[in-house]
Amino acid sequence: MITPESSMPSAASRRRFLALSAGALATTALAAAGCSAPEKASASAKPASSGGKELTKIGLDYPFTQLPLYSTLVKLSTAEAKKHGSSLITTSDNANADTQASNLNTWIAQKVPAIVSFPMVFEAMEAVAQRAMEAGLIWVTYGGSLEHQSADIQFSFRAGGTQLGEAAAKWAEESLGGKGKVAFLTDSTIELGRERTKGMVEAFTKAAPGVDVVAQEQAIDPDTGLSKAKAILAKHPDLNIVLGITDAAAYGAYKALQQTGRARDDAKTFVGGQDGSAPSLLAIKQGTFYRASAALAPNDLAAAIVDVPLAVAAGKANPSAQVPINLVQRGDTARIDDLLAQNA
Amino acid sequence: MTTADRFLTRPRVLATGGLTTLRRQPLLVVLAVMVVAFQLSTDSFLDPANLGGIATDAATLAIVAVPLALLVISGYLDLSVGSTFALGGLVAGWLATNGHTPAVAVLGALAAGAAVGVVNGVLCCHLGLSPFIVTLGMLTAIRGLAQQLFPLPLSGFGSGFAWLGGARIAGIAAPVVVAALVLIAGALFLALTPTGRHVFAIGVNREAAHLSGINIRRTPFALFVATGAAAALAGTIKASVLDSVVAGTSGSGFELAVLTAVLIGGVALTGGSGSILGVLLGVLFLGGLQNGLTLLSVPTFWQQMAQGTALVAGAALAYFAPRPGR
């Protein structure tokens, strides 16, 4: 027989669970505090024998924690920092501009001596950067420039899109006689996406005016790239070119084209993306119709993340860095292998 | 006769009490109007290739929507399905790339998903914690675990694993066949089995169901496990379709899409009401709307507005639709 006592969740077991949970949480919090107790700023930025300051801690604020590049950058930057006797700490912004601002304010209050930040919204980050500078901290802007900063790590969002658009247009001229159909997988939600989109669309349409633009759809991940490309293909089964603002979205389109029966090495099809992500690089290397990716080298970025704040601390002139972005295409085997090794 | 007795003695099947399916499922009319409108304005909406694409895309949604609908009908909720979706795809992909057979990869994913369901079930059904809080926490925790375990994208799973997402069975895409089986199983379970009737009874009034002799913890617990396993299976299918999976983005926002399909299909968030036919309509409506707006090249932000408006309209329709006892 079932009784209320035996079947309804017991209050005693709940209390036991809550007590255990509270204990576990407290232990976790204490352990975490022990593992990452903040050092005093004075201990993190010591005078160097050469006259400048020696940094023992660098904060990397990279908001797009969901991207594979995040893990790669953290791993490589941590190793790079260690080489210079520094430690690297990171934020967890979860691609949220409000969370990013909040985390950075915490670092400023903690007096983290050097902050390398990739602003999700550049205009909104100006006040935060100003506060950091006023607090005597080093502020390095990643991916652009702010008015208040010690230095920056520049790479052009637009340049990657432009290189991809130009390469696809050149291919269209050579392989399709300047005719055909193109679909763009774009992003209009953040500055990086808008700039990449602008570079890609403008460069392509300028260099291949005879190719019909049949769609411009928002897609940054493979699932969306797949479903959007399927819908576009239903209306335009003779679609020739898909260009994505991310490799992930373009890879979804690549699979959609394959699933409609397009041969992997179809001579009349071009898919290209941006980022240099591993699945796309492998597809390019294998000689498929995934033909190009505008890629940044993670090693170059990681080196800049550490070297630029160190250069500022050492009082060097022109401490900023310009990280090149290169288009990787079929035949660039050595370059692809190098990028894949960096991403491994 | 108590409310629970009423549900125990009369399964809520597709058309009862003199109401036609059409009146009970106003979304069917909306869906028909939408299909006609999209076909007239695009000329390609009803192309077999496009319908196949919609069905394949909607399949993963349907596979998770069915057990989630049963869970919601029983008065619970699982918001962790998006991360479980990613975890399932990652576990299966990792096993496939490390030399295991596709069957082992699928079983591994199902086990991982079921394990998430066990945790949710124990915390919500046995310890009585809030399903909203627990599964919201699990959504974040499982995503973090997935990113920690698999920080880099996985790809190149091999032709055997690709069968799951790319094969055709009697001319129908394998994911659609799997989704159809899940839908049929869910409908039969709900309409024809005593446990299916218990789902309604627990959702209507947990205490009354308990006093009627129903084990009010076991059935929802099993549904949590089923939902976790289904989410992992859906993630595995998507990983197979894409031949790649990324921990940070796979299944991102999936929980809201599934919940939207369930609610727009007439399942009451308060529990005790809903049908698998409604869930199917909700899934098809969402998939068709997304596809049609893309075919029409509607700008991104207008698409978002249209989808949000459709959700509100669908919810209103479901609310005002005639239901037994109202």
What attributes does this structure have?
heterodimer; A: 344 residues; alpha/beta; Rossmann fold; 2 domains; 6-stranded parallel β-sheet; 14 strands; 51% helix; 19% strand; disordered N terminus; B: 326 residues; mainly alpha; 15 helices; 4 strands; 72% helix
Query: How many extended strands of chain A?
Result: 14
The average pLDDT score of chain A comes to 85
> Structural class given helices, strands, pairing of chain A?
alpha/beta
Task: Report the total helices of chain A.
Answer: 13
Could you report the average pLDDT of chain B, rounded to the nearest whole number? 88
Question: Tell me, what is the CATH class of the largest domain in chain A?
Answer: Alpha Beta
Strand content range of chain B: under 5%
Number of domains of chain A: 2
Shape of chain A: elongated
Low-pLDDT residue intervals, each spanning 5 or more residues of chain B: 1-5, 7-18
Distance between the termini of chain B: 17 Å
Q: Largest protein interface?
A: A-B, 46 and 46 residues
How much helix is in the residues of chain A?
40-55%
Low-confidence regions of chain A: 1-9, 27-45
Number of helical segments of chain B?
15
Distance between the termini of chain A: 59 Å
Radius of gyration of chain A: 24 Å
